[in-house]
Amino acid sequence: MPWIKTIPSDAAGPELRAIYEQIYALYPPSYRDAVPALINPDGSEDSIIAAHSLIPQAMLHIGSVLGVLYQPDLPLTRRQQEMIAAVVSAQNRCFY
């Protein structure tokens, strides 16, 4: 869970919700599904995208870049992408 306030998509106003939708439309279907490890006991979900929700324009650009980089026709497989993310997160001592 991020240590900052976040605004999840289901609590976002119309403008922020539209940005969430625009970002997630770029993601391959397999990335849109909830990851069980990121679902909290209260049913909320941790989200690296939501961690940027207080600055919607930054969230739009960062999330869009990630959505494009996750496309299945690029050289890295999802397994490789996840491995890189796990190593970086471990190095940064971050849950994600």
Overview of the structural elements:
With 96 residues, the protein is an all-alpha fold. The protein has one domain. Helix content is 47%, strand content 0%. The chain contains 4 helices and no strands. The protein has helices at residues 14-26, 29-32, 56-69, 78-91. The longest helix has 14 residues, at 56-69. The protein is globular. The termini are close together.
**Element string (H = helix, E = strand):** HHHH
Shape: globular
How many E-type strands?
0
What's the number of domains? Answer: 1
Helix content: 40-55%
Span between termini: 8 Å
Strand content range: under 5%
Summarize, please.
With 96 residues, the chain is an all-alpha fold.
List the defining traits of the structure above:
single chain, 96 residues, mainly alpha, 4 helices, globular
Topology:
Layout: H1 14-26, H2 29-32, H3 56-69, H4 78-91
